[in-house]
Amino acid sequence: MTRTFTIEKDGFPDLPHLMLATLKALRHLGGSASIHELDETVIELEGVTEEEQSYTMPNDDRQKLNYYLAWARTFLKRGEALENSARGIWALTATGETLSSLEHMQAIHKRVNQEERDRAREKRQAAAAKKAKHKKQATNASLPEATLDDALPEEDIKESWTATLLDVLKAMDPSAFERLSQRLLREAGFVKVEVRGKTGDGGIDGVGVLRVNLVSFQIYFQCKRYKGSVSSKEIRDFRGALQGRADKGLFITTGTFTSQASEEATRDGAIAIDLIDGDRLCELLKTYELGVKTTMIEHVDVNAEWFQGL
Predict the structure, then answer these.
(1) Would you say 222 and 178 are in contact if contact means Cβ atoms under 8 Å apart?
(2) Can you say whether residue 223 is alpha, beta or left, with left for phi > 0 and alpha for psi between -120 and 50 degrees?
(3) 303 within domain boundaries
(4) Do 5 and 150 fall within a single domain?
(5) What is the mean pLDDT of residues 29-56?
(6) What does the DSSP 8-state code read for residue 294?
(7) What is the pLDDT of residues 184-217, one digit of tens each?
(8) Strand order in the sheet with 206-212
(9) Is the pTM of this model over 0.85?
(10) What domain range is 61 assigned to?
(11) Within this chain, do residues 222 and 282 fall inside the same structural domain, yes or no?
């Protein structure tokens, strides 16, 4: 199979190729998709291996492939080829429907990069003017251009609080993280939630009972502070510990799951395992207000015409 792009542990992928792969995946999905669906489809169509999915950025724990796919979407959006809704659904635009070649992607990439350079220059000029206005000592040192290495794509800037929260979670003591998972499950409606601790119980960290109307399900869970990706092998190992004990499992992690791990979790004929990755964990903690508080900002509009009519 011919790959549209390559991704390596060291070095950086070519963004126009990732942009082209993103468009192909979106067309395969019918023209619209969530970020998760889109990333999973790129991985499937391109045959990205679990090892490649595990590569992280040089200075943090963000998965390299997901990071650059986010940038690919950002460039395509600025090139008016994609649009996204408040609910995180990405869709092809009328312009995007007409784009299908690497040359198209390279043209968008070049134009957006030039716009970014122009914007950076304007910021430098505005900063210099402000310094001159306040009679501060000027500096001849030029500011560095913004690069992908020290920036975030638009969609990640909006959700930067999750990165802060994940850093906190990853720094927690393992036993404290297990207690947090226990509290979260209780808030979500589980009863009789028990944390097993380090009992050597085949990777099982705890068990709880979920009541749905007149039916109750005993669910074993595993909660791990991962910095990288959970592989399909780890899902199989967890399932092996569930054999003969439960009809369902739950795997909670601060990291991510590879595409193969997600497939393994719902494999036909095997015990189903629900997956909660770092992003979903953050959203759940936000929903149940566990260490996360949302502050609503009041916006007041004054209608001057109303007063004139008195």
Answers:
(1) no
(2) beta
(3) no
(4) yes
(5) 92
(6) P
(7) 999 999 999 998 866 555 678 899 999 888 888 8
(8) 190-195, 206-212, 215-224, 248-253, 272-276
(9) no
(10) 1-157
(11) yes
